[in-house]
Amino acid sequence: MTTKPRRETVAKRPISITAVVDCVGALAAGNLRGHLYMYDTNKAGGSTGFGSEELQTKAKRGDQILWNCLALECEAYVAIEDIVIDREVCEPERKVYPGTDVAYWVGTVKKADAGPITYQLKFKLGTRDQPISTTLSSSLVG
Predict the structure, then answer these.
(1) Torsion of CA 108, 112, 113, 118, to 10 degrees
(2) pTM > 0.90: yes or no
(3) pLDDT tens digits along 51-100
(4) What's the rounded Cα separation, in Å, for the pair 43 and 110?
(5) In terms of C-beta density within 10 A (0-12 exposed, 13-18 middle, 19 or more buried), how is residue 122 classed?
(6) Residue 27's closest CA among 127, 134, 96?
(7) Cα–Cα dist 17/121, whole Å
(8) Residue 26 dihedral angles phi and psi, to the nearest 5°
(9) Contact, 71 vs 102, CB < 8 A?
């Protein structure tokens, strides 16, 4: 009886996009211009624009994208309220880490080489009722 060698399946890690928000500065200005610093985990894959509001994340069909945020000031509150993106390319869904109230967003890229697909993030900051949206657009690039 011959046995086939087992193929090890390695789970592909998601591309994690982190938005670092200067909440105090954004609330004082009423916008995020100059108060948002975007990073992702795919620099080796070709992402560019690190530390700016115009992050260009290199992603292809089937890649899972995970968005999260951090406040620059440890005592400030920040959360992603919504991600505005073409739902035919990626459909982000809000999730919560089990046993916590810490939220993140996750979506899978549906189209290959879709070109630069811009998106905007809407943030809930401090005790402000209305979310503040990004003024410049980050994008997923194929």
Answers:
(1) -30
(2) no
(3) 999 999 999 999 999 999 999 998 999 999 999 999 999 999 999 999 99
(4) 21
(5) middle
(6) 127
(7) 11
(8) -65, -40
(9) no
